[in-house]
Every structure is written in structure tokens, then in C-alpha cells.
Amino acid sequence: MCGILAVFGCVDCSQAKRARILELSSRLRHRGPDWSGLHSEEDCYLAHQRLAIVDPASGDQPLYNEDKSIIVTVNGEIYNHKELREQLKSHKFNTGSDCEVIAHLYEEHGEDFVHMLDGMFSFVLLDTRNKSYIAARDAIGITPLYIGWGLDGSVWFASEMKALSDDCEQFMSFLPGHIYSSKNGGLRRWYNPPWWSELVPSTPYDPLVLRNAFEKAVIKRLMTDVPFGVLLSGGLDSSLVAAVASRHLVDSEAYCQWGSQLHTFCIGLKGSPDLVAAREVADYLGTRHHEFYFTVQEGIDALEEVIYHIETYDVTTIRASTPMFLMSRKIKSLGVKMVLSGEGSDEIFGGYLYFHKAPNKEEFHEETCRKIKALHLYDCLRANKSTSAWGLEARVPFLDKEFINVAMSIDPKWKMIDRDNGRIEKWVLRNAFDDDEKPYLPKHILYRQKEQFSDGVGYSWIDGLRDHANKQVTDSMLANANFVYPENTPATKEAYYYRKIFEKFFPKNAARLTVPGGPSVACSTAKAVEWDASWSKNLDPSGRAALGVHAAAYEDAK
Ligand SMILES: *[C@@H]1O[C@H](CO)[C@@H](O)[C@H](O)[C@H]1NC(C)=O
């Protein structure tokens, strides 16, 4: 990943301002430790912190078109940049960077080209010819982006909130799948996939179509000029990513440089379920597997840094981010700069346990759509910022645009949990990779049921966090929480504890509001309770409490 910061329309354009922009940009250096750049021009600044993955030697940013009238700062990977270069034959490219196509596409098509990009990205582009600028974020919000406004009339964009929160009067999370144009000063959605309307689709389930779409999604993400691996928890999703990646490594661009053995990584408390499951998958696939351990105390000690980096006080996100944050540091220390990861599958296929209670396919489908639309606030934010904290890039094949289109066009009756027909959660995905002739994974792994990430790292992790928070937050602190934090009031001592840390780093109200809370955070819970009143006893925000009713859900379903 990289870090971008751009500011337009500053009143003060002094050397001091330039120094300030450099200082703010350096708050994003963890995202891109390899090089920095700043282009300034009159009252406009475009800054970049680079993590070099494609064309490390010459792809430094900001990037330009031929006559340097268009300047662009990008955080992202454009997987179809070679095809796009083919279409831009009349243009002369300065670098081998996949992101340079953005400058030339704009030259060719004006503002309406974002849908042509296949990848994850956030970028800001300045057209000096008519002093206009645009900013855009990828379809699902895999990469983070914030927009802010200064009291002097300036407009700001940054990969992470910490680069603009001190200097902006107002700011917010930039909506995924949107483009901001200075022409009308507003955001509009460029991403308009068929599933957006939430109309119930009717395409019959075809396992091979789904399998091919996923294989393609993984293969295109093997585009890299640096060492990489797969985050392997041993659950279905990450195991499929590893299985497909290891099978196709030989045909990929990465192969000639990095060899045919895939590296896989797992973290947990000693003896945790994930470590055991991941080891088994790694042995089966023959990967070069790396196991990392952490202690509850090490996790607790990292919490302040974790919250500073991931910029949320959402309880489930913090619990799951901490092991990922610790693991990313270890992975980076091995010289690895990019990892594939399994986020998104649970949203697309209804993998969360409360989906067992969906009353009909219509509601099942609408809930999956809603979950995908909120990914940028939860798992995408976690995966991107926990890894970027250490200059590691995470790529998420389940959130490939084409794959989502295929998966979300399937008649949702196939995704519904149906014990009578042997269909457990995510059956359509499991079945698509159930190949007796050339198995991707052993059957018992392919059909293994869900272990929530934050629990899989070890059962005492969440208990340890809770115990620690209970010691830090008194009863009267919690009793008065609604006065201290009237917005998104924390309901537990653990939530209160995280909130206090968050407020220390991000004291402004605008920062608080970038985090989902109140009615929207309760939404999944609300849906679960709506579908089954007995869930109201399990208001723990993680899937963990749900695990308690896991068996019960099956008993009832019979
Ligand atoms: C500036 O020029 C580009 C490319 O021709 C065009 O798409 C854009 O709308 C123009 N912006 C303004 C503010 O006129």
C-alpha cells in the first residue's frame, strides 16, 4: 500500500505550509516506507508515501502524463494495467508503474474512466490545464480514503484520518465506489453493479462458473515484483486463497522471481485452533509455512498503537485487528511486502452465523448486499490498516469486482442454509471447490465450519481483553458513559476502554462520526434478533457469543 495526502485551495502557500504538508504526509509513512514525493503548484499539494510493489526502481509518485499537465497521487494496485496500456498506445509512459494509466486514461476520457480500472485504489488527480481536480475510491473501499475541509476553504484528501484530522474543521470517510469532482464540488457514485439495487437475482448456481471467477481473481493478484505470501488461518476462505494461489504460482508473473513454493503465515496464542488448522492446510498444500505466536499481554500492550493505526473504536474490529497487526510486523521482518487475505467471503455468501435464521431468500440476499456495502467500515478497514501499519500490503481476491458480480447474481436460494439438503453456510463456495479428481483441499477442511477470526487465535484472547478493560474502567465510569460520550455511547467496559484510547488520538467530533455505531453498528445484531428473538441474549458484538448458539442453531434448524 501507499499513503496519499492532497490539499487544494490553501490560502497560505508559504514555505511553512509546504513544511506542514510534508509533516502531515509523514504521518502516513508506515504505509509507504520506500520513498516520498510532494508536488506543489500554486495552492495545490499532492503528497505520496510509496510502498514499491510494481516497478520498484522507477515508479515513484506523484505520477504525470507526457507534458506533466496532469498529476496524480495513487494508493493502489491496478491489476488490468497492461490491457489498459494496450488501449492507450498513442500515449508515452514514463514508468512501469501500474498506476500511471490513471493519468493517461484521464487525458483520454476525462472524468469518466474510473469504472475501467480493475483493482483497489484511492487516488487524487490534478488537471493543471483548467485547474480542476478529482478524487476517487475503489468499488468496495478496500483502500482507505478520507475527505476534509479547512476553515480557509481548502479541500483535503488523505489515506488515513491522522493526516488531516488536526488541520480540517470537518472531515469524513470518502464513500467507496464514488468520485469527487471539483467541477461541482460533490461526490457521485461511479460503481453501479447489478447487485446494488438489492433486487433478488435469479441466475442458477453453476459451481464451475463460480470457481473460475475466483481462480481468476486470485491469479490476477499474483502481479508483483516483490516477495509475497498468503495469510492462512486454516478457515475455509483463507485456505481456498492459499490452495488456488499455490496451484497457479507456476503460471504467474511472480514465479520466475520467487520460486514455486508459496509462503503462508498464521498467528495465534500457543496451541490456538487457527495454528492447528493452518498447519494442516499448509502441510496438505506443501507451502512454506510460518507460525507466529503472541501472548495476551503482548496483544494488550499493542492496543494503543492498534487503535491509532486502524482509527476505529469498533470492538470486534479491534479484537481482530490486534493479532493481524502483530503478525504483519513479523511478516514484514521476513522481507515480505504483500499478502493475499480472505476478507469478504462471509459478507458475499452469508457466512455469519445469524444467516442460519434468515426467514427467506429475499431477506438473505438483502442482508448480504448490506454487509458488502458496509465492508469499508469493518473488515476492509481492518485488513488494510493492520497490515499497512507495517508497510505490508493486503490483497483481497473475494472482493474482485467480477467475482462479486458472479457471486451476487446467483439465486440466493442456493446460499440459504439447508440442513436437510446438507447445505451448511457458504455451501455454494465449498461445493464449487469440491473436486474429487484434483482436490483443492481435504473434504473435512472444505466443509469445516466457521471459527470467528478473533476467537480462532485462541480462546483466552477475548477473555483477556475483557479482564484487562474491566480493571481499567470503573462501574461509575460506565454508569456515566452516556454523559461523557453522548454519541455512540459505549455499552461495555471493553468498548469504553477502546473509546477512551480513540478519543486521545482523535478528539474531534468528526472523527467519532467516521466510526459506525449506535443504530448502524447494532444493525447486524438487530437483524439477528429480528430473525430469531433468542439472539437478544447474545448481544456481544463479535461472532463469539454466537458460537455459543452455534450448536443450538443446528438443533433448531433440524
Ligand atoms: C477540465 O478538463 C477536463 C478534461 O478535458 C474535463 O473533463 C473537466 O471537466 C474540465 N474541468 C473543468 C472545471 O472545466
Automatic annotation (TrEMBL):
| Enzyme class (EC, first level) | ligase
In terms of superkingdom, the source organism counts as Eukaryota
Chemical reaction(s) catalysed: L-aspartate + L-glutamine + ATP + H2O = L-asparagine + L-glutamate + AMP + diphosphate + H(+)
One Pfam family, short name please?
Answer: GATase_7
**Where does the Glutamine amidotransferase type-2 domain start and stop, copy by copy?**
2-185
Q: Which Gene3D superfamilies does UniProt cross-reference here? A: Glutamine Phosphoribosylpyrophosphate, subunit 1, domain 1, HUPs
Residues marked Important for beta-aspartyl-AMP intermediate formation (site): E343
Keyword Nucleotide-binding part of the UniProt annotation:
yes
Query: What EC number is given for this enzyme?
Result: 6.3.5.4
Task: Show the InterPro entries listed in the entry.
Answer: Asn_synth_AEB, Asn_synthase, Asn_Synthetase, AsnB_N, GATase_2_dom, Ntn_hydrolases_N, Rossmann-like_a/b/a_fold
Keywords from UniProt, A to Z, are: Amino-acid biosynthesis, Asparagine biosynthesis, ATP-binding, Glutamine amidotransferase, Ligase, Nucleotide-binding
- What cellular component GO annotations does this protein have? cytosol
| Active site, UniProt feature | C2 (for gatase activity)
Gene Ontology biological process terms from the UniProt entry: asparagine biosynthetic process; response to stress
Residues involved in L-glutamine binding:
D98
Molecular function (Gene Ontology), one example: ATP binding
**Residues where ATP binds:** L231, I267, S341, G342
Q: In which pathway does it act?
A: Amino-acid biosynthesis; L-asparagine biosynthesis
Name the chain's protein.
Answer: Asparagine synthetase [glutamine-hydrolyzing]
Q: Which organism's genome codes for this protein?
A: Helianthus annuus
